[in-house]
Design goal:
This protein is of the alpha+beta class and 199 residues long. It is built from 3 helices and 13 strands. It has a 7-stranded antiparallel beta sheet. It binds the ligand NC(=O)c1ncn([C@@H]2O[C@H](COP(=O)(O)O)[C@@H](O)[C@H]2O)c1NC=O. The ligand NC(=O)c1ncn([C@@H]2O[C@H](COP(=O)(O)O)[C@@H](O)[C@H]2O)c1NC=O binds next to loops. Pathway: Purine metabolism; IMP biosynthesis via de novo pathway; IMP from 5-formamido-1-(5-phospho-D-ribosyl)imidazole-4-carboxamide: step 1/1.
């Protein structure tokens, strides 16, 4: 199977990598670089840093990693919450993603920015994106990347990591422009661990 090797100097916006027992999320941003990821209880949230200018953009602060049912959800916006809530209600991962992505749809900003999300459970990993022109949700058996811009359809991705720290570091250091912060999630049996990179 062909693997995707990133080109340098390319801006792909926010992106996730989802595979069996692993997930990662990177915030890349041209417009709102002053952000970080914080942990509150068992949820990871993207928030402005202390020196960020105030904004009324509704899409720049949100939960990006959250448990749902027996799984973990990653994503680039407020849809992470309804995906997790559907998993809590017993929906299959595919259905939770389809339902929440379809309900909230792409972001109504200047770019029609897509919503991206993934679910990593004990026996499956599922990735999804909703764009103006498409809704794609599919199970993955190898690490797979999807991004808000340029790579806005799931693509195989070379991602060999063994811990949440390595997962977060790998996406933060990936050769795409305007890295801001990142989170990584790794499952071991029924347990999940996560890690954050803010720099
Ligand atoms: N999730 C995020 O962290 C996020 N950051 C920025 N956006 C949206 O994407 C637009 C473009 O942002 P940028 O130029 O930083 O790629 C922003 O105006 C905002 O509407 C986001 N929405 C989705 O990715």
């Amino acid at each position: 199977m062909a693997l995707f090797y990133p080109r340098t100097s390319m801006y792909i916006g926010r992106f996730i990598v989802v595979g069996p027992d692993v997930a990662a999320y990177r915030v890349s941003s041209r417009s709102f670089p002053n952000r970080k990821i914080i942990e509150r209880d068992d949820v990871l949230t993207v928030v402005p840093t202390e020196d960020a200018e105030s904004t009324d953009n509704p899409y720049v602060s949100y939960n990006c990693v959250r448990p749902g049912g027996d799984a973990t959800v990653v994503g680039n916006g407020s849809h992470v919450d309804p995906v997790a809530e559907k998993l809590d209600m017993g929906y299959p991962a595919r259905d939770a993603l389809v339902t929440a992505l379809f309900a909230l749809d792409f972001e109504k900003d200047d770019y029609d920015t897509p919503r991206i999300a993934g679910v990593v459970g004990e026996n499956e990993a599922v990735i999804g994106i909703v764009r103006r022109d498409a809704l794609i949700v599919r199970e993955v058996t190898e690490p797979t990347l999807v991004a808000t811009y340029e790579h806005d359809a799931p693509i195989d991705y070379d991602f060999a990591v063994e811990s949440a720290e390595e997962a977060a570091r790998a996406v933060y250091d990936a050769d795409f422009e305007h890295e801001v912060c990142a989170a990584g999630v790794v499952r071991e049996g029924e347990a999940s661990e996560w890690a954050i990179v803010n720099e």
